[in-house]
Amino acid sequence: MKTLTPPIIKFGIVAILCTMGFRVALSSLLTNAQFTFIIPIAVLFAFVMFLAGRFFGKKDNEYLPIYDVGFRFHLITFLQYQLISYAWFWFGFPSTHEKIGTLNITLFIWGICLLVHAYYYLQTKKHTIKRISKDELFD
Amino acid sequence: MMIKSFDTDLDELLKAWEDTYKKGQLTLWIFLALKEEPKYVDEIKTFVVEKSQGSMSCEEQSLYRVLRKFEHVEIVGHELRKGNKGPDRKYYFLTELGIELFSRFVRRNINLFFQEDIKTILV
Questions:
Q1: Number of residue pairs across A and B with CB atoms under 8 Å?
Q2: In this structure, what CATH number is given to the domain that contains residue B11?
């Protein structure tokens, strides 16, 4: 059983690069007090992540139609974002305007959203055989 | 005029029935191909076209996708073998689960057509 498909691995790599780029850009902008660019850069980050998810999600479905209501993509996005963001703090890279509390709040709220998603993910299991939709397996 | 209309209707009806009928048939043909012996994708494709006398066809990409699904649920496996030239080829085979699945499917759905009374009707 293979759930780490090539498209999802590629998505993970793109997501890591985007998140690292976002953290660098965010900290640089804050350090240089260029606050007007903060929201646009966050929106751009979200938009690029959305496009990457959409692109690789389609590829993933073409490769192997794992029926997971997008949970694997969500989980990878969550894990890599949190790991990179906390690492960014632990290595002392953020600007003085960035607080670890903001990251903790993000972790908490996003974590709850992820748990809700996980609940729906587990609910879909009964319609599948090893995560392939029963309707799609022999079509 | 009547005969032409009859033929047109017949062709359209036959095509509509066959289109629906064939949708689920590829799985059976892939199982048949792999039951005979392990094969790589091109051989499976050739088997399907030849043995179905051209009534079934399949693109390589669709075959790969189907085989990936079957490998995922562990009814099909593959091993790498040397090709004549170029990279190693993936030879697909039915796993124990796949063989048992095929055997039960045939008993429940195909063997029915070999009953004497049904054969008489079919012929």
A1: 29
A2: 1.10.10.10
